[in-house]
Specification:
The structure is a homodimer of 261-residue chains. The first copy, chain A, is 41% helix and 20% strand. Chain A is built from 13 helices and twelve strands.
């Protein structure tokens, strides 16, 4: 049966999962759109709850339909209804609701790694996703996000991360980074903060210790004072008074952190 | 007189300048929104054609109103009309139309510099603006864009570049980069292409020559073959099979190019 009504329960549910963070949290589900992201989700071991295809996608992606039908209930909707559900201008017509990973384990697992990036108040979902993607590419072992960061599992952030968030699974703190920083310090991490400061060391002129955690801050307000106080400051040597975009700065830090292994 | 009609000629013109590349090209004008960008435009020496304020902005930014009134005709519109004109969700209410810089001089001026970035088919205006901002921060002397790149003077790209495009003034080629590459070669530049290739050298293990030009390509399709053939290939050592976002890769290249001075 092809669903053609916008009022259908699965249609409303899917639209809610795509558009509302609170709805995703309440249902403890991620909203994934597109062949690549759905594929990455299954590879990353996420548990599929249900999938939904547009009529066009059902014809165009038979292999994906089969793969998803094998692991969860699937629904077909008209192309018009899919457009109504989707957050994208030109949607592929493939949607998967999958179980959110258990966040409670994450901090312990992250602390076992060697290189960690913490984000303090990164609010643009595109920047956030790009940073997660870059961190994974450079072999950063884990990420910790302050409570006021954008949602790394929002559709926009997931797209920018190209699915990296499904593998790197950032730990999202309830509020500030202070608990995480205390844990990292106890575990023997050297703590760094990316910021301009009189006492800041110049990036590129020293080697990072084996266990390194580095904070990138909000572009406007930088790193919160309480977090910065616990860290050694580092700066990227630039030639003008202008600052760097947070994702550009993060790329350079990840590159340097991975070089010093 | 406060303009309250959407049909007013200056209102239509402003809306056209903000939304349509062809309109900007026909009028040879840039569309700048917001206090910071307008300020950067005057500092960069652009010639103001006319300015337009919302009623709210007229009260809130008296200094900017005065500065712009001194150099060009200014108009006041109702807040509702400004929202109609603007491309932004929460506009500040300040608009400036300014004369586009003469592109014909640019290639010659760029070739006099030492470090140059070329972009081949970067289509996301946010990525494009971020790359221009990063390049300026690292003291890159000039930028050359292939004809199929996004418009560096579109409102979205200008915002992402935080006004850097007004100072670095990229040269926009009519079509491919081939003419520019030939000129650069003649002028003694070492030409590099950022790409994964069997013959590619690893970034970070050598020093760039004094006169260096480097191409960053479109994420999906990379660098066009004709351009790549003229260059030595370079790659950023990453740990996974995933690629980097074009703006993240550009940040790392600009950082390395500026270190080797």
């Amino acid at each position: 049966m092809i669903i053609s009504s916008r009022k259908n329960q699965t249609v409303s549910r899917s639209r809610g999962l795509i558009n509302e963070k609170k709805f995703r949290e309440k249902e403890a589900l991620l909203a994934l759109e597109g062949e690549k992201l759905c594929d990455e989700a299954l590879k990353a071991g996420l548990k599929a709850e249900y999938a939904l295809f547009s009529e066009e996608a059902e014809k165009k992606f038979p292999q994906t339909v089969k793969t998803l039908s094998d692991v969860c209930p699937t629904y077909i909707v008209t192309d018009e209804v899919y457009s109504y559900i989707s957050g994208q201008k030109t949607p592929q017509g493939i949607f998967l609701a999958a179980k959110l990973l258990d966040k409670s384990e994450n901090l312990d697992r992250i602390i076992e790694k060697e290189k960690i990036i913490l984000l303090d108040g990164i609010q643009d979902p595109g920047n956030l996703g790009t940073i997660i993607r870059t961190a994974e590419a450079f072999g950063i072992g884990g990420m910790i996000l302050s409570g006021d960061c954008a949602d790394p599992y929002s559709p926009k952030a997931l797209r920018a991360s190209m699915g990296s968030a499904l593998r790197l699974t950032p730990f999202c703190a309830e509020d500030t980074l202070s608990v995480a920083l205390t844990e990292l310090k106890k575990a023997g991490f050297a703590l760094y903060a990316a910021m301009l400061d009189k006492t800041a060391k110049k990036l590129g002129e020293f080697s990072f210790p084996k266990k390194t955690a580095l904070i990138i801050g909000n572009e406007g307000h930088g790193i919160s004072q309480s977090a910065a106080e616990q860290c050694e400051k580092l700066y990227i040597p630039i030639q003008t008074a202008e600052s760097l975009n947070a994702a550009a700065a993060a790329a350079i830090f990840c590159y340097e952190m991975s070089r010093n292994r």
